[in-house]
Each structure stands twice: as structure tokens, then as C-alpha cells.
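Homework help board

Subject: predicted structure for assignment chain

Our instructor gave us this sequence and asked us to write out the predicted structure in C-alpha cell form, then describe one feature. I got the C-alpha cells but I'm not sure how to describe them. Can anyone check?
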Amino acid sequence: MLSVAHCPPVSSAPLSVALPLATISFFIAFASWTLFAIVGVHLKGSLGLSGTLFGVLVSWPILMGGLLSLPLGLLAQRYGGRKVLIGSLLGLCPGLIGVILADSFWGFMLAGTGLGLAGGLFSAGLLYVSRLVPAQRAGACMGCFGAGMTGAAFTFLMVPMVHAAYDWQLAPVAYLLVTALALVLVVAFTEPEVPVPATGQRLWSGRALRGLLAPRIWYYCLQFMFMFGGLVALILWLPDYLTDRYQLDLQTSARLAMLFSLPGALLQVAGGYLADRWPPERTLKFALAGATLVLLLLSYPPMSVTVQAVTGPLQLRLVLPLALCLVLLMTLGGLFGLGLGSLYRLMYDDYPAHTGVVGGAVLFAGCLAAFLLPPLFGVADDLLGIPSAAFMLLFAIALTCSLAFVLTSRAAERRRLLKPSFNGG
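My C-alpha cell output:
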């Protein structure tokens, strides 16, 4: 069982100030986190990257974010979310400077390591917000913070516009200035957190960390690998996919990809709101079932079918049109958002005092999936030449998560039914 030496300090800042500033900070961090999704398309040509190396490059900051999320979540649990949030914003600046100065594949990989601090900002910000909100609105408020993922849409809109007018190298310069401004606002308008007296055991003791191996946390990690990992992986991969699949220019593809990323970010608020008013499992069940169906439809590759008609063979070409593909992607993004909002509420209900640690653990799992999926998408493209194989892979993951949901729900129901018998016996 998780137990810590220090409860996270409690902020004295009002929610009306702290929540918007935390969301803005995550917005900027997520925009920086996904910067390579657009910049990487330019680098793919200039550096001569294969599909696999391109996938590694665009997802590298996500992996670094996952690796940093748990230790920074532990630090947030110990010293308070505000301090770690400020430190993460400060650490993003060298990463953005590295993007400006890099001129080789390994230089951009090194810069992407600095951009990974956005992952620590997520776990710290989630803890910071959870300590401010009333319990009856925890899901909606944490969903508001998660809506900072709209930073990806900002990247999709801004970077192609900057590249068309000037050059893409000016985009990280603008991000650096905005990050510095957000840092100043957070420091100036949020107050230091009030420490809580120490109780219990050390935060990083072996017993405390073994609490992260609880089956319930592994279940959350699996769901987060699909909901968060799948969302981020597709955000990184869609501009290149739409460009190659439908012969679009990068600026058009980036704007169309916003139709996926915006619902995925904004509907986290709706998912948290619904989870506040009904059992969160109900919202998660709907999101899983809907996402599985949509991924099945997106998985069908272009194909030709020969039908033997009376007049002779009739050749039919079955291709998913762009308009239908965008509708399905928009629906899928919204379902991911609903699922993430419900997961925030579930984690808050089960681990209200450990949101930073548990958030860091599940974010690590989600970032690991987000890192592995784009290279796998690239391998499928390089070896098989079937772009929709990416959706086939996500469909298999969705089936696994749905099975885990059913088994977990049945186990919980059995415990509820057997508990009165044991108490009476």
C-alpha cells in the first residue's frame, strides 16, 4: 500500500487562479512536447530519415517525458506540485534552445531529451490541481488541466504558418518566449504551498515504491497506454500519414490533424464531468467500446475486389475517402478524451493522497506506448506498405484493454457480492 513521509503541501492559491495557470503551463509544455510532429516532417527530408528513424525522432521527447514523470511525480509528492511545475517550465528552455541550434539527427535527439520535461510537468500539475479542487468536482477540474493537450493543435496550426512565412526555426524561438512568459506568470500569481507535517514512512522507501506494483495501478497503466499513448502517438503520426496517404501538403495535413487532437484534449473535461456525476467506469466502458469500433473501421486498407457479373468480371476499388477518415478520426479523438477524463477521476477516487506518484506511474506507461507506437507505425510502412496497419495495432490494444476492463469489473462485482457473506459469517 502506498504511504509517504510527507503529504504534498497544500496551496493557498485560489482555484480560479491556479487552475488556468496550470492548464496554460501544460498547454505550452505539450506544444513543445509535440513540436517534432511537424518539425520532424521537414527534418525527414533534409536529414534523409527513413520511416523508422522518423518515428523514433518524433516520439523521443515522449519517451523522455515518461522516464522523468515518475521521479518528478515523487518529487512533487514530497515538495509540492507548484515547485516541480516551475522547475519543469524552467527546464524546457534549454531543450527549446537545443532545437534552435541542432543541425544533425543526434543533435535533435539531445534537444528532444530536454523537451521530455513536459512529462514531469503533467504529473506535477495533476497533483497540484487535485490538491485544490473539491472532491465533487475533481474529475472536471483534472479534465480541464488535461485539456492542455490542445497545445498539440497549437503546434499543428502555428509551425506550418511560421514555416510558410519565414522558416520553421523561428517556431522554437516563439515557444521559448511563451514558456518564459508562462514561468513568470506562475511564479508571480501563484503562492507557495503550505507544508503539511510529516507522517508515515519515507516517500522513496522500498515499501512505498512496491505499492506501485498493486494490480489496480497496473490496470490503470494498461488503460493509460491505450488512451494516452494511442492519443499522443496518433497526434505525432497523423500529419505524415495524411500527407502520404492523401497526397496533401504538410500545412493542410497539420490543420486536418487538429480535428483529431482537439476533441481528444477538450473532451477530457466532459469525461471528467460525467465521471463526477455517474460511476466513472460507465464512461470508460463507453469510450473503450466506441474506440474499438472506430479503430476496426479505420483498419481496413485500400483494396480491390473482383465481382463476377453477368457481363463479365467487375472490378471494385474500396478506399476510405478523406472526409470519412476525418470523421472517424474526430470521433476516435473524442472517445480518447472521454476515457482519459474518466481515468483521472478513477485515480483520484482510489489514490487521493498519491495523485502525483500514481499519475507519474501511469504517465510512464502511456509515454512508453506513445514512444513505441510511431516507430512501429514506421516499420509497418517501410516493410509492409500498409499505412492502416497502425490502426490494426491500436485495434488489438483496444481489444486487450476491453478484456481487462471486463475482468476487472467482474472481479469488483464478486468482491461486492461476497463481502456481506464474509462479514456475516
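Reply (TA_rk): Your C-alpha cells look well-formed. For the description, you could write something like this. The first strand starts at residue 303 and ends at 309. That's the kind of observation they're looking for.
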